[in-house]
Amino acid sequence: MMGLYFFFKSVNTSHPEFSSGSKKEMLKQVQHDNNSKWLPYSAVCFGLTPWIYSTAKLFTPALLIFLVIVFRKEIFSISKKNIIYALITLGIFAIPMVYTIFSGSGGQRFSYISIFTDPTTNGEVASLRLIDAQVEGGVNRNVLQKVSTRLIHNKYFYWGSKITNNYFETFSSQFLFVKGDLNLRHSPEGIGQFYKVEALMLILGAALFFVFFKDRKIKLLIAFWILFGVVPSAITRDGGHHATRLILILPPLVILISYGIVQSISLFSNHWKKYLALIYFGFWILSFGFYLHTYYIHNPWYSERDWHAGYKEVIQSIKEMEGSYDKIIITNALDQPYIFFASYYPYPPKEWQKGFEEEYVEGFGKLKHINKFYFGQVGEEGIESLQAVLEEKTLYIAAQRELGENLIMEPTKTPEGLDLVKAISYPSGEPAFYLFERGEK
Questions:
Q1: pLDDT tens by residue, 339-362
Q2: Would you kindly state where each structural domain of the chain is located, as residue ranges?
Q3: Are the CB atoms for 43 and 90 separated by under 8 Å?
């Protein structure tokens, strides 16, 4: 947004055509030159944007190309000095980004979430071909290799279907106004990305804006921003309802909603304007109140696993009792625990940055560790084998899912040969972690 703000601040005055040396025209030129000095600031903002989030690496270059094409007359009317400054500034930020992308490190995250690297693709395609074969009279190599089957069911069509589904899902009422992002770290349960009361304003705003707004170039910008802003997310797995990857289209949607509110109210007489505004914002405040209730009361329960609840209490407990143990093993059965340990302990950064060592631990295999803190889980035989392999003065932090029992409610179900030192619960009261040590024989 700031990049566009400085961009329009630079090009908002038309370059005057000098036919005489009138004072008025000279003042226009001075004003134009003063405005164009903001172009390098725009370049700074655009150059920094791809570093903020991965989807901007695709969207930002596309937006810049769009701006150059649509606003070329305004850009080329700017002094060459400011254009050169802007290009140099943009290059300072863009060249390192381009290098990281093509060297592999910058594109590592995208390669992990891209639909083009989805490991389930081949299996899905093979399953569809198998159904074709069964429908046509049985499975045999000839049917599976038929040209028609391979033309319809292949990875390229599969990718195209996934991208299209993601693209249209973004504009669905389910994502925008009903359920939102299914990841509860991004959206509270049962609340869309916008309030339901804003749905009508978005529809009216889009209709009124694209029909009656006079500046054609601005309309093209908003349309491009929305339609292409979805693309970087659409080519990723679950990109159709991933709020953080789709945050690029938030500003133009807010603009259209705001435009819809203002223009809709302005259609009525002054007598009705204030009442309509009060009614609308009354519904908006009710929606906001419902959101706050859901977020602070219900969401901590609904999203406790998504937010990795329990880790803070686990690390705090470890810190309190670490003096009693020579070795503390933190399970990775629930998630990788490194970042939680480093943050909540908190572990000295200088020591942490030296890296981990590896050590073979009986019953666990090779575990990474730093000092007395080990990360991994008990072997294939599970918790039942823990009493046979857990050494004296060793503490094992197990996830509840490794045991499947609620030891908070039924502590007597603690596996034989182990002592339950402590149980850590989620906000809902359900067990999250168990701290075990070797029991007395």
A1: 999 999 999 999 999 889 999 998
A2: 2-113, 115-153, 168-302, 311-438
A3: yes
Name the phi and psi angles at 425, rounded to 5.
Answer: -110, 160
SS3 396: strand
Nearest by Cα to 90 from 49, 122, 59, 54: 49
Angle at 286 between CA 282 and CA 287, to 5 degrees: 115
- Say how far apart CA 255 and CA 302 lie, in whole Å: 32
Retrieve residue 399's tokens. Answer: 């996830």
Structure tokens at 17: 């055509």
- Packing angle, helices 216-229 and 56-70, rounded to 10: 160
How many Å is the Cα radius of gyration of the chain? 30
Number of neighbouring beta carbons within 10 Å of residue 180:
21
Tokens, residue 229: 């802003």
Query: How far apart are the C-alpha atoms of 102 and 180, rounded to whole Å?
Result: 34
Local mean pLDDT, 10-residue blocks, the chain (441 residues): 78 47 47 68 88 87 93 86 88 84 68 86 85 68 65 88 95 94 90 94 95 93 96 93 93 95 89 90 95 92 92 95 94 92 93 91 92 90 82 92 90 90 93 90 55
Question: In Å, how far are 30, 192, 401 from 376, measured between CA atoms?
Answer: 67, 37, 14
Is the model's pTM score more than 0.85? no
